[in-house]
Amino acid sequence: MNVAKFVVLGSLELIGEGSGYDIITELEKKKISKWTEVKNGSIYHALKKLNQEKAVQEVTKLKNGLYPEKTIYRATDYGRSLFDKLQAEAFNGLYPKFYGFKLALKFNRRRSPKEIKEFGEKAIRMIENTLKGMEMYLNSPEIPKSQKEFDRFFIEHERLLFEAEKYWIQQVIIRFGE
After folding, report:
1. What's the domain count of the chain?
2. With CB atoms counted within 10 Å of each terminal CB, which end of the chain scores lower, N or C?
3. Assessment of whether the complete model's pTM goes beyond 0.70
């Protein structure tokens, strides 16, 4: 998944139309840069690529005094479809650093509470399967004991992260189930 493209389309989903600067401002309001590695330059690059792919279109160009001209964009039907696909991928994943579900939720405007609950339940099943896989590895008779002891320390850290994400997603399900 290209996170920069996702956040550009997600921002346009929320604000309707805007420039690269408007998108960056929206991302700052949502504190996206605090927990993702998307930089401002990536936003402009993603806008350029999305425009080439016909996922966004230029609406107008604005000139305000001595400031550089800015191009205003909006998502096309294809762009909204691409956003939906990327959002579903984010809801279904914990890619990188455990922020997929959160990222998908931050830009949600059209998914129903029922859909969010279903995505949450699926994400929890994925987490539980991952946790089972970790446990199976640690209990495997084929892995040397010294290797398991070394790995256990790191696996425990990952287990704690997955458990925290699972708890948070359970809270989302409760909130959207009301």
Report:
1. 2
2. C
3. yes
